[in-house]
Amino acid sequence: MEVTDKKNMTRHALRDRVFGLVFRIEFYPESELEGQIESYIETASEEYLPEDLDYIVTKFRSVASRIKEIDEAIDKNAVGWTRSRMGKCELAALRLGIYEMLYDDDIPVGVAMDEAVEIAKTYGDNTGGAFVNAILTKVKDNT
Fold this sequence. Notes:
This protein has a single domain (11-141), classed as N-utilizing Substance Protein B Homolog, Chain A. Helix content is 68%, strand content 0%. The chain contains 7 helices and no strands. Helix 4 (67-77) crosses helix 5 and helix 4 (67-77) crosses helix 7 (128-141). The N and C termini lie far apart (51 Å). The model has no long low-confidence stretch (mean pLDDT 92).
């Protein structure tokens, strides 16, 4: 029997990997997203436990399947901004955060918001966190 020291990833780490895939939505047509999942997995610098990989892929597919509704929520609440003007990291963080806020009952709204803001701070520009927080707050207040 093979002994492994791999542990399940934290929700934060899993969300970070999902963000990496959601980021690709802006750059590839819907017909290529399945191929992007395969590419992402092949180029990952780590091996995933099956349940972690399943979580990442399932959540990404769920976000992608609701992208129209998510983008409508962004458009409605990003007063004075169009998605084309937004930083791509901030847009991906918004998409993931809004998905979790509106469609993922396992994640409290506050956690979804905080995590999206942290992702924007990590990967976006120096004002990305505040930008994402402002839009997510409007989404929360309007739902």
